[in-house]
Amino acid sequence: MNLHVKLNLSSVRKFPDGAFGAQVITSDADDNQAFYACKVKRTAPFEVELDRSNVHEFIAGRWQTATVNDALAKQLTGSMRKFVSSYAHLFTKDVSKGRDGKQFGMYTDAVVAIADSGGKHKLKVDDKIFESKDAVSLLSNGQNVIEYRLIGDSLRILSLNLADNPYILKRLQKQFDVAKEKYERRRNSRPIGGGSWADNQNARKEFGKSRYNHRELGRSRA
């Protein structure tokens, strides 16, 4: 019985029709491994559907059509569902090869999520997911050690000493700067007192007119 399922992150590809393909490795208690190639399609924000007719297993040096029972389907679907629901929006890098058609992969470094007000930015460097101290600071003063999680292993929290990894720090800082800029731009475009973007722009215009009229009134009294 297969107990552990691991997604081969470097194999994941997004296709123009919205489907995702990947290699999935399963292993049992005796560490016997099986390698599958499968394809899923997103049916809802947190749901995917496995294409059972398009599952292959690597046996005797070649890929062969696999027989998919409910247990295997559940394993393959589960590993892909968690990944696609969290990172589908990052597949913007064109990795197409002529004979394989259009395909998209992830950039090595990326902003996973922009912070909400008072929250933290989520940043990707390689297969690691970091969180900033807050929306405007990557690290606390004097902080060198930062925690991270591996993509596909959200339960385990690891740590990295950035003083010993200046290259990682440089890449992480670059993604943080991108996230912070987007955060500031989004915050500055919010409506004054709520409403739509158009309401916000109108409110800003009226506010500007009010300040102008106030200055003119002051000049006329001088």
Q: Which overall shape is indicated by the principal axes computed on the Cα atoms? A: globular
Mean pLDDT comes to 86
Determine the structural class based on helices, strands and strand pairing. Answer: alpha+beta
Biggest β-sheet description: 6 strands, antiparallel
Helix content range of the residues, please?
25-40%
Description:
The protein has 222 residues and is α+β, with helices and mostly antiparallel strands. Helices cover 30% and strands 37% of the residues. It has three helices and 13 strands, in the order ββββββαβββββββαα. The strands form three sheets. Strands 1, 2, 3, 4, 5 and 6 form a six-stranded antiparallel beta sheet that branches. A five-stranded antiparallel beta sheet has the order 9-10-11-12-13, covered by helices on one side. A two-stranded antiparallel sheet has the order 7-8. β12 and β13 form a beta hairpin. The chain is globular, with a radius of gyration of 24 Å.
